[in-house]
Amino acid sequence: MAHDHHHEHTHSHQHAHTGIDWAEVAPLLEAQAELFTPLYEKALAWLAKDVTEPGLIVDAGSGPGVLSCLFAETFPGARVVAVDSSGPLLERARDRAAREGAADRFGTLLGELPDVLGELDYPADLLWASRSLHHLGDQRAALTAFAERLAPGGTLAVLEGGLPPRYLPRDIGFGRPGLQARIDALDEERFTRMRAELPGSVAETEDWPALLTAAGLKHTRTRSFLLDLPAPATDRARGYVVAALTRTRDVLADDLDASDRATLDRLLDPGDPGSVHHRRDVFVLAAHTVHTAVRPV
Which of the residues in the chain have pLDDT under 50? Predict the structure, then answer.
């Protein structure tokens, strides 16, 4: 399972109690979602094979709305509602929808998942939850609540898991080889602590098809989607890697050993020819996994 929480756990925005400054992280969230658009387009095309002409699509944990607007583009007949606990991020989502010409069928809903979904005017034909579920203490109960907000025949799609992202070769020519693998291990520990500290936290085996079935849904499907942006990185991809590794250094500063901190510092130093600002071997490779199930008619 990949969580990418050193830079991506904020993707769901459902943990305002952590005191995150959304104005600060919003540009990173947007840059990541925009860079990952080819991956999301594949996922939405896969969804569209079974979800035909949905009337209402709900993006539960939408953040700044990059993916919400992609849903509006993919399903031009649908109304899309972006749901998030951050007002500033929803404002960015509304602005994006206006820029993309979708404002007339785009709405927002402010509040904490899953309770805020009770404020929807209509049940959803497609409810999408991208890495928002793991920020809720009782994931099983949350899935049941999500399922209850589906129309008969409606689809719940949960993006959880996949593979950790990679940006650099295992051996980068300085420091100990395997830096990203060690970061992954620290990140998993941090994720476990985060889950344990959530209000009402319940330990759960992360068998998402089984959990979807337990929520009363049928016809589970699972598919993983790859983002493969090979070296040499574009300026956009390189900028994302710089931002992601900067957040990794900031978030995991107390957990990294001195050697790995020094390696990250060098990787992020614009004056160092070995940094990600200048290296020709920088790439972005990641996989996200989507699980779906349908509410019985």
Answer: 1-18
